[in-house]
Write a structure and sequence with these properties.
The complex is a heterodimer of chains A (347) and B (332).
Chain A lengths: L1 H19 L1 H4 L4 E6 L5 H16 L3 E6 L4 H14 L3 E4 L8 H9 L4 E4 L10 E4 L2 H20 L4 E7 L5 H14 L5 E7 L5 H14 L5 E4 L2 H13 L8 E6 L2 H8 L5 E4 L2 H16 L7 E5 L2 E8 L2 E5 L3 E3 L25
Chain B lengths: L2 H13 L1 H16 L6 H10 L1 H15 L7 H16 E4 L12 H25 L5 H20 L4 E4 L1 H8 L1 E2 L2 E2 H19 L1 H11 L1 H6 L4 H27 L1 E2 L7 H11 L11 H21 L4 H28 L1
Antiparallel strand pairs in B: 1-2, 2-5, 3-4
Classes of the chains: A alpha/beta (347), B mainly alpha (332).
Chain lengths: 347, 332
């Protein structure tokens, strides 16, 4: 009797599970997300967000971590191409080096969507970016305001702490920032890279520069986790919050905490959730090889412009400047409150 | 000058060549690089040498004993993450505290030493008991321990370390940060142990000729395991210091430090074949590397130059070691 009851219960449970998970039952297929590394919070949260949003629109996401190694990501791409998924979402370790892999995937009929790290040298089925150059430009706009408020004019000394000098991501931010700052010849910029994006390297750079250039007005670091080490060095040199202005980029939780504590004035956010949501919104169109039209789209409430570029449809989502006034808003991914509303595919 | 005095002088110069190099480099940079010659910069050099310096102590002891430990960087990253997770207040930090608050200092240090010591013991046991190659065993540890750091943290960071620990990274004694004093005192203690105690002499003997040392009745296997435990525990302390300096931990904390530690050990005159080397030379090697690093920071040169210079220095150190060896043979 016990056996019969157990069997009935198991069958009922299986039936209920099947009824309660229609998405799994009607999966539209696998989409691989090729994440460049899991060593920073942006990438870690991007995995959660992309997986969540892709599931909401009916796909089965699988994530592969390239550990910041170009060769590993290339071989992962080769492996995935053989598995014939519905699509690949790529955040490239190296924009240029992955170009042949993208071409190989597309030649095999697998559409490629680019997330966050733009590839412009070869056709891409869909690109969702904040624009790394633009992040540098937004930072420059904010730094202009901060220097003017501090010195009465846009002048002074800025220490720019880059990430690893072999990473095109940080070089793009530097490009955007320095291009805009050219308009202010009275601002002296000292640029130094933190090898391997390692926090203690950034801390050492800040410690050295605060001694050699005690008149530094502002420090601009290219990632929030580097800002933490920069603050630790400032603290060790007897500085108080606000003595040296601090601007960072990517919008990680630690950066938002530094704003709340008064050490950091501005964090330039990469709109992670919106970038990830856009991938899910356009996934059906990409997988089914339907036309994607240029125009303005609302992505999680953000007006985002889709243009048809030489490399394909390119959706640019505006990065936001986070300050003490808006730091607690849920839309910033650094507050780790992923949007609850389900994603609706673009018709 | 008689022959004995002449020989002693030459030996002294050979033994302390890296210190002479350090003095020459410091003088040259002071004369040529604007803003270099000031107390604050020298203090920075000492402070930034702390982590690689402490790590290099354990590494040097293992190498002097004729082995290899590639795991020290990952062990340091693990203890930094453990410290960060347990005693940070933000990110993935759990914010544990004690009453009285200062207890967090000895407890967190002890925990780091124990975690590092256990990993070191594992390496040593595999090398001695299972006769596995130290290079392979510690390479495996280098990989899996870093993986464990990423897995533990989920790629997230622990920030805002408790003020009772941060005090070590902020306060100074005699212009030198407390964090740097810990490195200096560690070098002093282990220099004494290696030079003046039977343990140090036996470790050096093992590196020179393990078979002869065994025949002399010394417990070679046990001492080799002890060197690995020391390397692990000392690397654990380096990680503890790293977490204090950066007020928490990120998953990539300490990346690249293994090669700097190796470079410092080689530049400091420790023979990779074992049996030769003194810890003060290693400290000079670390200071030399960080002097160059600081100079590059001040000159605003691209960071790639550090690696080019580092590689050149290691090569020069090995060449110098060969020259020193042939001079010593001639003197003998």
């Amino acid at each position: 009797m016990k056996k019969i009851l157990g069997t009935i219960a198991a069958v009922a449970a299986l039936g209920a599970a099947a009824l309660l998970s229609p998405a799994m039952a009607e999966s539209k297929g696998k989409i691989y997300y090729m994440v460049p590394t899991l060593l920073d919070e942006f990438q870690t949260e991007s995995v959660s967000a992309i997986e969540k949003f892709l599931k909401e629109v009916g796909y089965e996401p699988v994530t592969l971590n390239a550990d910041n190694k170009t060769d590993l990501q290339q071989s992962q791409m080769n492996d995935v191409i053989n598995l014939k998924p519905k699509a690949i979402v790529l955040a490239a370790v190296d924009f240029n080096a992955l170009q042949p892999s993208v071409e190989k995937a597309r030649a095999a009929g697998i559409p490629v969507m680019v997330f966050d790290r733009q590839i412009t040298a070869t056709p891409i089925d869909f690109t969702s970016v904040a624009g790394t150059v633009e992040i540098g430009q937004v930072a420059a706009d904010q730094i202009e305001i901060l220097l003017k408020a501090k010195n009465g004019a846009v002048k002074g000394k800025v220490l720019q702490v880059l990430g690893d000098p072999s990473d095109p991501y940080t070089l793009d931010i530097q490009k955007g920032f320095e291009e805009k700052m050219k308009a202010f010849p009275d601002v002296k910029i000292i640029s130094l890279p933190a090898m391997n994006w390692e926090a203690s390297n950034a801390g050492t750079i800040v410690a050295d520069q605060l001694v050699a250039n005690p008149d530094i007005d502002l420090i601009f670091v290219h990632a929030a986790h580097l800002a933490v080490a920069a603050v630790a060095s400032m603290e060790a040199k007897g500085k108080k919050p606000g003595d040296v202005l601090l601007v960072s980029s990517n919008g990680a939780p630690v950066g938002l905490d530094l704003i709340r504590k008064g050490w950091e004035q501005v964090e330039v956010e990469q709109p992670l959730y919106a970038q990830a949501a856009a991938i899910a919104m356009f996934a059906d169109k990409v997988v089914n090889k339907q036309e994607i039209k240029a125009g303005t789209y609302k992505v999680l409430g953000l007006d985002s412009v889709l243009t048809i570029e030489s490399w394909g449809p390119n959706l640019k989502i505006p990065g936001a400047a986070i300050t003490k006034a808006n730091v607690d808003e849920a839309r910033f991914w650094g507050n780790l409150k992923a949007p609850a509303d389900p994603i609706t595919p673009v018709p | 000058m008689n022959l004995a005095t002449h020989r002693k002088t030459v030996e002294f110069v050979l033994d302390n060549l890296v210190w002479l190099m350090l003095i020459v480099v410091l003088a040259a940079f002071s004369a040529t690089i604007p803003d270099f010659f000031q107390l604050g910069i020298f203090v920075n050099i000492i402070e930034s040498s702390t982590f690689v310096g402490v790590m290099a102590i354990g590494l040097a002891i293992v190498i002097i004993a004729g082995n290899m430990d590639l795991s020290v960087e990952s062990v340091a990253a693990l203890t930094a993450m453990v410290t960060g997770i347990l005693f940070s207040n933000r990110g993935i930090g759990l914010g544990y505290s004690f009453t009285p608050e200062w207890l967090v200092l000895p407890i967190s240090l002890l925990l780091s030493l124990v975690v590092g010591g256990i990993l070191g013991f594992t390496n040593g046991w595999l090398v001695v008991r299972l006769k596995m190659n130290a290079f392979i065993v510690t390479l495996a540890s280098y990989i899996w321990v870093r993986g464990l750091v990423v897995a533990m943290s989920g790629g997230r960071s622990a920030q805002d370390l408790t003020p009772s620990l941060r005090v070590i990274g902020i306060e100074t004694f005699g212009y030198i940060p407390l964090i740097a004093w810990i490195a200096i005192v560690s070098f002093a203690i282990f220099t004494f142990i290696m030079a003046k105690t039977p343990f140090g002499r036996h470790v050096t003997m093992i590196g020179g000729n393990a078979v002869a040392t065994f025949r002399a009745g010394i417990a070679v296997d046990r001492l080799i395991v002890v060197t690995f435990v020391l390397a692990g525990a000392i690397a654990g302390m380096a990680g503890w210091l790293l977490a204090i300096r950066t007020s928490g931990a990120t998953a990539n904390l300490g990346v690249g430090m293994l090669f700097q530690a190796f470079a410092a050990v080689v530049i400091g005159g420790v023979s990779l074949k074992g049996g030769i080397g003194q810890l003060p030379g290693v400290y000079a090697g670390v200071l030399l590397l960080h002097t160059i690093q600081t100079a590059i920071n001040l000159m605003g040169l691209p960071a790639h130059y550090t690696q080019v210079i580092l590689g050149g220095l290691v090569l020069a150190a090995v060449l110098l070691d060969t020259v020193k060896h042939s001079i010593r043979l001639r003197l003998a």
